Structures are given as structure tokens and as C-alpha cells.
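Sequence, please.
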């Protein structure tokens, strides 16, 4: 098992994860960047001062998405996504200004603005169609970002349906040479692709009525909790 979240204050933000991760670690393609996210989260949100930084942002997430409980599907992944959002996506005093951005510019005491921190500050999260191949391709369904991912486990996948293999929520970090996934993906139902296409078209006609990822996260949480989950109704 691989140690993560060693700072007690981060464990208090993710109590169900404890101090040890039980999922596979070093062999995962995203394990390095997952560790870097955990490290940055510890440094920015650790201690009493860090907890005060995180609290209002996590409250914003809970209000927009809902609180995940232990019985929820992908609970650990959702909790990690919540911290990552507070760190890398939640804007503070200006557009694009996040805690990761501040750390990357040397504005967080005790956090060195090294190359990994700067890369994480530029990371992007989105909902992507997965197309297997060599390399695999991720096609963004919200911002339109499309990129290639070197994921050997998908090279041999035979896919003959004529459409994407999966629909994933993924955080991507960009290095000098390639794009990498930061954490294991969170799966969404492929049945909502027509809804996403309509939302994408609506966004360009009237941006205020388009869907954003926080809305989709809330819909997914409600969908996974339904006794008889109906993807088309939940994401309608």
C-alpha cells in the first residue's frame, strides 16, 4: 500500500481515506500525478490555516453538488475530486486565481513553486468521451478539448460499436511532452451523450443556459442514489 494524505489535517478533510490508500498504486499510469495532487493539497490545506482556506470552498462544492456519503458509489473518488476542485478550480479573488495558481506563483508560504505545482495549476478537468487506440483519445464534451493519452491498457481493446467506449470525468495535467491523467477516472453513463450534445450547442447559443461540470456532478450523485436509476431522466 502507498502512503498518502500523511498530514492529519488532510485526513480530517478526507476521513474515510485514512492515512493509507488501498487501491493499486505504483503501477497506475496516473500514480505520480495523484501523489503530487495529494502533496499539494497537504501543503495548501494542512493545519489550522489551511483548513480555514479550504472550508468556504468545500462548502461551495457541497451546496452545488451535494455531500457524498460513505454508501455512495465512488465515494473516495468523489471526495478526492472535491479537494482537487477546491485546490485547482475554485476561483478566489479573480478569474483563474486558485490556490494552485497562487502556489505556482510563490504566494503560499511554505509551498515551493516547483515544476509539478506549476503543472497542476494549469491542469484541467472535464467530461470526456474515451476512444481506445494507440494512443487512446479523450474528446471533451463541455469545453471541446480533445487530446491523446498514452494508456497502454487500452491499446488492445477492440471496439466495434461505432461510438465511444466510455464517458469519463478526468483531470488532465500537461507536461512538456504529453498529457496525463491525474487520478483514476469517474465514469458517467453513455446514455447522456445526446443530452451533452444539446447542452454543448446551447452553450454556444446562450452560454448562461449551458451545463457545467458541477451541475453534472450533482446529477450523477442523484442518479447513483436512485433506487431505479434512469440516466436520461436524471440528466434531463
Amino acid at each position: 500500500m502507498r502512503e498518502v494524505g500523511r498530514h492529519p489535517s488532510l485526513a480530517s478533510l478526507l476521513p474515510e481515506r485514512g492515512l493509507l490508500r488501498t487501491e493499486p498504486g505504483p503501477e497506475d499510469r496516473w500514480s505520480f500525478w495523484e501523489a503530487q495532487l495529494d502533496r499539494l493539497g497537504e501543503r495548501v490545506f494542512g493545519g489550522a490555516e489551511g483548513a480555514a482556506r479550504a472550508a468556504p470552498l468545500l462548502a461551495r462544492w457541497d451546496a452545488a453538488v451535494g455531500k457524498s456519503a460513505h454508501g455512495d458509489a465512488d465515494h473516495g473518488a468523489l471526495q478526492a475530486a472535491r479537494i482537487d476542485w477546491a485546490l485547482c478550480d475554485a476561483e478566489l479573488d479573480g478569474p483563474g486565481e486558485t490556490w494552485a495558481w497562487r502556489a505556482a506563483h510563490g504566494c503560499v508560504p511554505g509551498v515551493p513553486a516547483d515544476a509539478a505545482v506549476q503543472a497542476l495549476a494549469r491542469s484541467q478537468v472535464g467530461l470526456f468521451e474515451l476512444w481506445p487506440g494507440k494512443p487512446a483519445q479523450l474528446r471533451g464534451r463541455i469545453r471541446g478539448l480533445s487530446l491523446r493519452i498514452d494508456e497502454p491498457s487500452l491499446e488492445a481493446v477492440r471496439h466495434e460499436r461505432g461510438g465511444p467506449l466510455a464517458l469519463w470525468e478526468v483531470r488532465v495535467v500537461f507536461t512538456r511532452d504529453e498529457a496525463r491523467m491525474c487520478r483514476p477516472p469517474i465514469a458517467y453513463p453513455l446514455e447522456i451523450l445526446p443530452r451533452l450534445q444539446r447542452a454543448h450547442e446551447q452553450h454556444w447559443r446562450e452560454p448562461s443556459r449551458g451545463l457545467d461540470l458541477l451541475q453534472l456532478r450533482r446529477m450523477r450523485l442523484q442518479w447513483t442514489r436512485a433506487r431505479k436509476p434512469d440516466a436520461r431522466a436524471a440528466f434531463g
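Residues 124-234 form one domain.
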